[in-house]
Write a structure and sequence with these properties.
The protein contains six helices and six strands. It has 142 residues and is α+β, with helices and mostly antiparallel strands. The chain has a single domain, classed as 50s Ribosomal Protein L5, Chain: A, CATH 3.30.1440. It holds the Pfam family RNA_binding.
Length: 142
């Protein structure tokens, strides 16, 4: 039986960036459409315009997203995540950041600078099983 998964995606698009490039990258890499995202216009620290893109994936879309993520990320990045998985998990969620620039270049790499923020959620009823559950997901065994 497959796990129930949900994926939340959040990315900030700065005024100097072309949002269409971000949408194209999500389409090419993860097969997500513009319609999968909600766009919100905001103001940054120096009153500069920014756009917040958010998506909430459920059911088949979330499963496909996670499969693509796991198959596209390098083994060294998977090992990095597994090494500090305890600090990346909270309340049945795994938090990851991938490089927005890498995504535009059709690559999936971990990145903390100007990232695409991901929250992967699956119900885990015992905290002691949290690391094990996400380790299995990242190894592609679920």
């Amino acid at each position: 039986m497959e796990k129930r998964l949900e994926v939340d995606i959040q990315v900030i698009v700065h005024a100097t960036e072309d949002p269409q490039k971000i949408f194209d990258a999500f389409k090419d890499v993860f097969d997500l459409d513009v319609e999968d995202f909600v766009s919100q216009d905001l103001r940054g620290h120096f009153d500069n315009p920014i756009t917040l893109l958010q998506a909430k994936l459920k059911k088949k879309k979330s499963m496909q997203f996670v499969k693509t993520l796991v198959s596209g990320i390098s083994q060294s990045d998977v090992e990095t995540i597994l090494e500090d998985i305890e600090s990346r998990c909270d309340d049945s969620s795994l938090f990851l950041r991938i490089s927005k620039q890498g995504l535009v270049q059709k690559r999936i790499v971990l990145g903390d600078e100007d990232p695409v923020k991901l929250r992967i959620y699956t119900p885990v009823y015992s905290q002691k099983n949290l690391s094990k559950t996400y380790s299995e997901i990242l190894r592609g065994t679920i």
